[in-house]
Design goal:
This protein is an alpha/beta fold. The chain folds into three domains: 6-49, lambda repressor-like DNA-binding domains (434 Repressor (Amino-terminal Domain)), CATH 1.10.260; 63-165 and 297-321, Rossmann fold; 167-293, Rossmann fold, CATH 3.40.50.2300. The protein has helices at 6-13, 17-24, 32-45, 51-58, 72-75, 80-95, 108-119, 137-143, 167-180, 196-211, 225-238, 250-262, 296-311; strands at 63-68, 99-104, 125-129, 148-151, 162-165, 186-190, 217-220, 244-247, 272-274, 291-293, 319-321, 324-326. The strands form three sheets. It has a six-stranded parallel beta sheet, with helices on both faces. It has a four-stranded parallel beta sheet with strand order 7-6-8-9, with helices on both faces. The longest helix has 16 residues, at 80-95. The radius of gyration is 25 Å and the shape is elongated. The termini are far apart. Residues 4-58 form the HTH lacI-type domain. Keywords: DNA-binding, Transcription, Transcription regulation. InterPro entries: HTH_LacI (IPR000843), LacI/GalR-like_sensor (IPR046335), Lambda_DNA-bd_dom_sf (IPR010982), Peripla_BP_I (IPR028082). Pfam families: LacI (PF00356), Peripla_BP_3 (PF13377).
Length: 331
């Protein structure tokens, strides 16, 4: 059977081809009864729009690139951040009749591939996630005049709208809680210092210790569970008398709890532990983890809404979401 054409739809509905086209392309300048007739004809004939031809007319692909600056081994790992962002962004875009094109960009070769793909007009906009240091993509994509938004404040000075959470304020709240429950020697396992989240959470930790006349005790991890375990062992070796640790994400905190247990330190009796993110596993650690709730789903949804707003000429003002201290048994 031949594929139904737009001309056949127009004939069945008793309208011109131009009118049928306006209905198919979602334009609102068609009277409701005519629109209903065209939609009925589409349903009766089983008409499916030619997406390539439609893109030529609308100058839209209805596809959005979700670019993650991490290798696949990191994205598809135990870290729930990436799966939550991908799922939440995809659902929000689906409700807007758009689809996600997932792209990984962790090295120079993949950066060039992403740039070529986007410059080829295959997507209407770009969402950037997990950028490190002097990542070239934000600057490169901004020159292409494609709408771009970032999940998190960009680490490089580039004029790109972003959605972030209050990393500094959240860290301050977590460390202040440790001070208020009487802990004196408060260490931190910071996140990677080529990422804004790692920098900001370390800054929040240092702000509170400076104001409370306590010295900083710092080890650095890479937001993985293994790095948290290694960093905790390092801290215990550097200062066996520490009585609290603020960990820059929950996955590293899980590793830190393991190292504390292996070292014979009781949590929270000997060492209190506060994490950041409030991942699902934080409820089930031993003991359950006190942490800062980072609204990942809300942040991903807000990122999509910010990008869709740019398509309509909306403002590109930064969006900063609050964090919330969730007190459990570890502190």
């Amino acid at each position: 059977m031949r594929r139904p054409t737009l001309e056949a739809v127009a004939a069945r509905a008793g309208v011109s081809r131009a009118t049928a086209s306006r209905v198919v392309n979602g334009q609102t300048t068609v009277a409701p009864h005519i629109r209903d007739a065209v939609l009925q004809a589409i349903d009766e004939l089983g008409y499916v729009p030619n997406s390539a031809a439609r893109s030529l007319v609308t100058q839209r692909t209805d596809s959005i690139a979700l670019v993650i600056s991490e290798p696949g081994t990191r994205v598809f790992s135990e870290d729930p951040l990436f799966s939550t962002v991908i799922r939440s962004a995809s659902m929000e875009l689906e409700s807007a009749n758009k689809q996600v094109v997932l792209m990984l960009a962790s090295n120079a070769k993949s950066h060039a591939r992403v740039e070529r793909y986007i410059s080829g007009g295959h997507v209407d906009g770009v969402m950037l996630i997990s950028m490190h240091g002097a990542d070239p993509l934000p600057s490169a994509l901004s020159r292409l005049r494609v709408p771009v938004v970032s999940y998190g404040r960009p680490a490089v000075p580039v004029d790109i709208p972003f959605v972030d959470n209050d990393n500094v304020g959240g860290a301050e709240a977590g460390v202040r809680h440790l001070v208020e429950i009487g802990r004196r020697r408060i260490a931190t396992i910071a996140g990677p210092q080529d990422m804004i989240a790692g920098q900001d959470r370390l800054a929040g930790y240092r702000n509170v210790l400076r104001d409370s006349d306590r010295r900083s005790i710092v080890a650095v991890g890479d937001f993985t569970r293994e790095s948290g375990a290694i960093a905790m062992r390092q801290l215990l070796g550097d200062d066996p008398g520490l009585d609290a640790v603020f960990v820059a994400n929950d996955l590293m905190a899980v590793g830190a709890l393991q190292s504390l247990r292996q070292a014979g330190r009781r949590v929270p009796d000997d060492v209190a532990v506060v994490g950041f993110d409030d991942i699902e596993a934080a409820k089930y650690t031993e003991p359950p983890l006190t942490t800062l709730r980072h609204p990942v789903t809300d942040q991903a949804t807000a990122m999509v809404k910010l990008l869709l707003g740019l398509f309509e000429g909306g403002p590109g003002d930064p969006v900063i979401l609050p964090t919330e201290l969730v007190i459990r048994e570890s502190a």
